[in-house]
Amino acid sequence: MKYLSILGSTGSIGKQTLEVVNHFKDRFKVVALGAGQNVSLLKQQIIKFKPEIACVLDKKNAQILKEGLTALNNLKILYGPEGYEICASYPKADIVLVAMLGISGLRPTLAALEANKTVALANKEALVTGGSLIKKAIKKKNQILPVDSEHSAIFQLLCEENKNYLKRIILTASGGPFWETDPSDLSNVTPEQAIKHPRWAMGAKISVDSATLMNKGLEIIEAMWLFEVGLDKIKILIHPQSIVHSLIELEDGVMLAHLGPADMRLAISYALNYPQRLSFPLKPLDLTKMPLTFFPPDFKRFPCLTLAFESAKIGGSMPVVLNAANEVAIKAFLKKQIKFTDIPLLIENIMKLHTPIKEVDLETIFTIDRQTREKAKEWIKKYT
Ligand SMILES: NC(=O)C1=CN([C@@H]2O[C@H](COP(=O)(O)OP(=O)(O)OC[C@H]3O[C@@H](n4cnc5c(N)ncnc54)[C@H](OP(=O)(O)O)[C@@H]3O)[C@@H](O)[C@H]2O)C=CC1
Ligand SMILES: CC(=O)[C@@H](O)[C@H](O)COP(=O)(O)O
Ligand SMILES: [Mn+2]
């Protein structure tokens, strides 16, 4: 039996993780659950999976949860950043699945690694903002098992002998909902259109990231940390079918690809069951039904990709700025305060204001994150 702490349990990845856990009932036991503000769903999850501790975003939500679960005397209810860290380092947990949103995933990821847990990492922003700290906190081989579909694919392709001959990592991108939209129409696209991903059912934030292609930009930085490769060894290919989840190219010119249905439960199940590969009931791929096509990325149409490459090249504190400006921009876009095409504009302007710092510690990361958010909000106020 493996004991799990699941952070972000009420989100898209969190809910799919609980489906996987439910399927492998004899293999997993949930000991900790962390959510944000969706107390009613967390309550249902607690009743079904019976964790020993649970965490929510703030005291008010913790109180609401406590009042709704009076019969569960043994359940410990926590709140806030410290609460998530306690869930991440909970002594009984073997695996911590981090699927919280944005930079909120960084502290729990570090806490889990420091407590020697295996981390099934879905949250890419933790590596984008705190990659150097995460690398330092790793205590054992394969302590991080990537859940992000592309990185799970690359992890599966990169066996020891291939690692020695790796020429390039090729990250595939669906292109998002606006891959074929006329560029002049992009300023008028709505949040409803932006979160309608053509292949994956995901949370709102990552769906907008896929629409701007910032998701692929964040994934480049994620891959640099996970697989210890330079920017020159990472390439992006648009692959609208989302069947090939990524490729590696080896020194002899051979390319190895990872194919599978576009269903995150596969990557989640792989990480939780690793190193075993156990069957999860899904409709098998029928390659005769869908031609596989590939295109180069269009940097002009999707300036977020260029910004992410720039920030990865600069490194240090710049990806923290990229991430914070992006998080603020997406929230504003979803609230219809700014246009879709303002997202890269805002990020570019905020990045220009920043003087990069080479080495960042945790305190500096959160200071820069806070300052960037303030600047980004000011930019929006001036603009709107
Ligand atoms: N969805 C997907 O298919 C994929 C997602 N990922 C990554 O996984 C992560 C989660 O994505 P996804 O599941 O789509 O996101 P969702 O928005 O669906 O879920 C986010 C989860 O995090 C919680 N949460 C939000 N803000 C905070 C906070 N400040 N502190 C603590 N918890 C918080 C939410 O709680 P609540 O709802 O209760 O408020 C929810 O449980 C992201 O980093 C994303 O990039 C990577 C690959 C694929
Ligand atoms: C499922 C997953 O891993 C997402 O990150 C996915 O890659 C998003 O699709 P895009 O390729 O459109 O960014
Ligand atoms: Mn991905």
UniProtKB/TrEMBL annotation:
GO biological process terms, semicolon-separated: isopentenyl diphosphate biosynthetic process, methylerythritol 4-phosphate pathway involved in terpenoid biosynthetic process
Residue ranges of every copy of the 1-deoxy-D-xylulose 5-phosphate reductoisomerase N-terminal domain listed in the record: 4-131
TM annotation in the entry: none
Gene3D superfamilies linked: 1.10.1740.10, NAD(P)-binding Rossmann-like Domain
Domain DXP reductoisomerase C-terminal: 259-374
Annotated EC: 1.1.1.267
Residues that hold NADPH according to the record: 10-13, 36, 38, 123, 125, 203
One function term, GO molecular function aspect: NADPH binding
Pathway connected to this protein: Isoprenoid biosynthesis; isopentenyl diphosphate biosynthesis via DXP pathway; isopentenyl diphosphate from 1-deoxy-D-xylulose 5-phosphate: step 1/6
Cofactor needs: Mg(2+); Mn(2+)
Protein name: 1-deoxy-D-xylulose 5-phosphate reductoisomerase
